Amino acid sequence: MMFPSILRTELAKLRRSTVTWVTFVVYAAMVAVAGFFLWMMKNPGVAERLGLMGQKAKFAFGGEAVDWPTFFTFVQVMGGLESLIMSAVIVTFVFGREYAEGTAKNLLALPLPRGHFVLAKITVSAAWLAALTLWLVSMTLFAGSLVGLPGLAPAAVCALAVRLAALAGMSLCCLTLVAWISVETRGYFAPLGFAVGTLVLASVFGHTGWAPWVPWSIVGVYSGAAGPDVRIGWGNLLVLAATFAAGLSLAIRHEVRADNAQ
Predict the structure, then answer these.
(1) Which helix (H) or strand (E) holds 43?
(2) Nearest-5° angle of CA 135, CA 138, CA 141?
(3) How far apart, in whole angstroms, are the C-alpha atoms of residue 93 and residue 87?
(4) CA angle 32, 145, 136 (to 5 degrees)
(5) What is the dihedral of CA 246, 177, 199, 203, to 10 degrees?
(6) pLDDT at residue 54 above 80?
(7) Which residue of 2, 9, 11, 87 is surrounded by the most CB atoms within 10 Å?
(8) Is 166 left (phi over 0), alpha (psi -120 to 50) or beta?
């Protein structure tokens, strides 16, 4: 019964934190931006009269159908990048806050398996991302309805939800290393710096043939950011699994050996 108790405590911390609700606002803002682009595509004359649609925007939006599939594609690509960024923030916050607030020494002094704390925090991070994914799908449907997009199909909604959930899971696999760096460096800055570096790395490799083999680029490939011709297979999923296992093992190893005076 020890792990469920630790998990409930971690969930209670999450519920009482302002950061939790800020992430939902950020996701809603992302969907609002995508919906605004679709509105401009649907109403180019009005957007141009308001000074919102310039020549570059016309070129960028030209030829795209203004319907639900196009909107879902926008959200999917944006969701891949957003899940990488947000999972980095979530994992850094969940693990790093104990050191920033000075409560890590209290946790480590408890007569409980220290590995359970790491597993509970990873589970909470996954639940947080799952809730954000459901929120993203619901906000997408709401924004698309406001714009008045045609061509909505239940099967497409289910496909989008599955795709976004997979992207969130892939992002979390990449971010266990961030959890390890958080506990190793005892704070926020180093893990966030590492996360920014991996985003740059993903962008660089995303334009090469190595993209499906770099953990952080795999998320972009699956989201469709690298184009429809680039696919991932079981070997690429094994890369993500290995990254997840490595980060989790290193984080647990650190916590098991850590001095509770830190």
Answers:
(1) none
(2) 150
(3) 10
(4) 45
(5) -10
(6) no
(7) 87
(8) alpha
3-state secondary structure of 208: coil
CA dihedral 64, 67, 70, 75 (to 10 degrees): 140
Q: What tokens were used for 29?
A: 């803002």
- Cα–Cα distance, 231 to 172 (Å, whole number): 20
> For residues 23 and 90, is the Cβ–Cβ distance under 8 A?
yes
Question: Which residues make Cβ contacts (< 8 Å) with residue 190, sequence separation at least 6?
Answer: 181, 182, 184
Alpha-carbon span 83 to 91, nearest angstrom: 12
- Closest by alpha carbon to 13, among 127, 110, 109, 113? 127
User: What length does the chain have?
Assistant: 262
Say how far apart CA 29 and CA 174 lie, in whole Å: 24
| C-alpha closest to that of 40 among 25, 16, 22, 58 | 58
Buried b / exposed e along 131-156 (16+ C-beta atoms within 10 A)? bbbeebbebbbebbeebebeeeeeee
Inter-residue contact 205 to 218 (CB < 8 Å): no
* DSSP-derived secondary structure letter, 262: -
Q: Could you read off the pLDDT of 208-238 as tens digits, one per residue?
A: 777 788 888 888 888 876 666 667 788 889 9
Q: Which amino acid is at 2?
A: M
Cβ neighbour number for residue 82 with a 10 Å cutoff: 23
Rounded to 10°, the helix 114-147/234-257 angle is 130
pLDDT per position as a tens digit, 140-184: 999 989 888 887 888 999 999 999 999 999 999 988 999 999 988
Which tokens is 202 given? 């993903």
